[in-house]
Amino acid sequence: MPLKLLRETISNLFRKPITIEYPKVPTEVPENYRGKHRVNYNKCVGCSLCAIDCPTGAITMKVIPERKKRYPMINYSKCIFCYQCVYVCPVKAYVVSNDYRLATSSKDELVQKEIKFE
User: Fold this and answer.
1) Domains in the chain: how many in total?
2) Does some domain include residue 99?
């Protein structure tokens, strides 16, 4: 047993490491990976279908008085990235990406706080 372990240790000394030096080396993400998505508020008509269809309640609607419409706000700490909001949107206002970098030290940072019109 100890000889087998020693042989394995020595053979591993001459192999390339398997680990990736993240964040120095970016991780390759598959093309169809469901990452962070956002709303293009200029396209959004405020129909609320995304909020109604969201299985986790991660999308809430916020009223913007000067625009006289409701707009979706995403809470990424609740989101399961099912993209149901993307599929149900009648005007295709959701912009999808394969961005997986959502790590944070505070859960509050995953909650969208303001609406930015482009």
Assistant:
1) 1
2) yes
